[in-house]
Amino acid sequence: MSVVIITGAAGLIGSEAVEFYASQGYEVVGIDNNMRQTFFGEEGSTIWNRNRLKNKYANKYVHYDIDIRDTEKINKLFSKYKDNISLIIHTAAQPSHDWAAKDPITDFTVNANGTLNLLEAMRKHCPEAVFIFTSTNKVYGDNPNKLPLIEKETRWEIDPSHEYQEGIPETMSVDQNMHSLFGASKLAADILVQEYGRYFNFKTVCFRGGVLSGSQQSGVKLHGFINYLMKCVMTNTPYTIYGYKGKQVRDVIHASDVIRAFDAFFKNPRRGGEVYNLGGGRESNISMIEAINYAQELTGNKLNYEYSDVNRAGDHIWYISDMTKFKTHYPNWSQKYNVYKLMEEIYELNKERWSNVR
Predict the structure, then answer these.
(1) pTM of the predicted model, to two decimals?
(2) 284 touches 255 (CB < 8 A)
(3) What's the topology of domain 3-354?
(4) Dihedral angle over CA of 271, 275, 280, 281, nearest 10
(5) Euclidean distance between the first and final Cα of the chain, in Å?
(6) Would you tell me how many other CB atoms lie within 10 Å of the CB of residue 275?
(7) Within its chain, how far is the Cα of 306 from the centroid?
(8) For 180-237, how does the pLDDT look when each residue is reduced to its tens digit (9 = 90+)?
(9) Which residue ranges make up each domain of the chain?
(10) CA 148 to CA 161: how far, in whole Å?
(11) Which of 25, 161, 190, 329 has the most CB atoms within 10 Å of its CB?
């Protein structure tokens, strides 16, 4: 039986991957110790999602409450399954800029050292497995902010004559800019994943995500932009816009589209430490103001928000992913969601869950 190991298995992308591969008959091994609650408090807990997965896929899913920084336990788990492991999807992370600044050591050891533990476990026990790393567009630091941007009524946009008009490619420099400590720890992990691919000729890949979203996310103030915004609108929770006049633009991709991209690579992997930008691209992007307006229109509620002139350090003004490279390598993949359809799904699937919060 082919085994799929998924870290951060109770999180947004991890749980989507569990459902995808368990439903296809794989033996799925989940690693998740609910550190999201440590990072973000009770609101960020993923225990509800872990229990849902265990109940739904009782015969195909086994869960381990292991910290990915625990080298001994990670090695013991990998040694149990060995060459039966065909795929490792690594989504576990400390995901917040602001939280990282409060505790840089925990941020770095989770994001960088934890990734190194997993890569070494693969090298020792299942070197022919495919290793998929959920990286981030924050590895580019604030270089995107140096692009020629034009202020419009509801958003910032890039000069239409610029070569990045279709989005930011993988060739953008990661050097000589401010990343935030979170961006730095994820970049360290990103480079490690690339290096294991290049140095050992392993089948590793970094997917540098934009805003990854979906209805199963435990969105919180410090992470999960679309999901948290929808929750605030639906529950009358106060919200703060930080800087850029609320016109900052993000591309947004649904978790299910992310997993289908992962699976395309798994089915036809490339060796040598491949890198892809992965986001909504020109098909699915939105500004903060545009997202608020649509959430209010969709729900019939008004968002209780305030504006701060101070933007988050290293935050992007405009970020849209250029998906050309991935689509060229995997032409059969396409997005099934845009950001508006995704927001509609979050609303429909969470009305009952959040009804008692308001």
Answers:
(1) 0.94
(2) no
(3) Rossmann fold (3.40.50)
(4) -120
(5) 46
(6) 20
(7) 27
(8) 999 999 999 999 999 999 999 999 999 999 899 987 666 556 556 798 899 999 999 9
(9) 3-354
(10) 10
(11) 190
Residues found in the chain: 358
Those residues whose C-beta lies under 8 Å from the C-beta of residue 114, and which sit 6 or more positions away, are: 7, 67, 68, 69, 92, 189
Owner of token pair 């995808």: 20
Structure tokens at 163: 């070569």
Q: Is the pLDDT of residue 315 over 90?
A: no
Chain centroid, CA 207 distance in Å: 9
Compute and round to an integer the Cα radius of gyration of the chain: 19
